[in-house]
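User: Can you write out an input/output pair for a complex, sequences first and structure second?

Assistant: Here is one pair. Inputs:
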Amino acid sequence: MKTSNDISQIEKYIFGKLPTSSRLLFEAKLLIDPLLNVHVEMQRKLYSIIRVSGRRKIKSEVSRVHQTLFTDPSYQTFQKTTFELFSKK
Amino acid sequence: MEVTETQSNITISEDRLRWFTQLYEDAFPKVARFVANRGGSFEDARDIFQDSLVILYEKTVLEKLEITVSSEYYLVGIAKHLWIRKFNDDQKKVGLEATESEITIPADYFDTSFNRLASLLELTGRKCVELLQAIYYDNLSLKEIKSVFGFSSVHSASVQKFKCIERMRNMVKAKSMGYEDFK
């Protein structure tokens, strides 16, 4: 099987997008092919890692926005009203 | 601002920054007031709000959110959930509205077991990580991938995607061994 077919097949399996007949066939292959099992597990793990990494990317963009809003003088009013909320305690 | 309206135009970094800035200006004061009233600090409000923005982004691009409320309202709802989670505050005391109580936080959001592998992959395979993020996290179509990453065709974008998955998959396999977070 060509690698890209293999990867695409595994992807569909992981995301639950294989039609029933293909899924059953795939599960039968999983029973007899240890390497396929490893590939499925690693690919599943890769998607989780990509999500973690994507979250980090977005989080750093959000931090940048925060940095701008709380340092840029053009947002002075915004800064002042926000800080006041915490000084009243 | 309706969540559904913004779905297609926040997956590119510049537009996203504008979207986040707008939401920050509109909703951060509300979250800050909520946190301040419960004795939390500015830093608590900042942390909770930033995670809320990430979660809102995910819900907007990955889940087909069918909500009728505004992004701002939804964002404040997520923030309340995060507050409850972080400080074990009583859900009833916080007083969530009906629509707010239906909001869910992604089950794996605070899972740290892949952090180390993510750092390793970002370090050794930056380009592939960026491509796969755009496909699987930002949910861009291959057509969008083609123009954002400058591929000559959708086909070559797709070929690169498979190459990257294979390469990264092998890396995960190699790096997994000997790490505690290998399950």
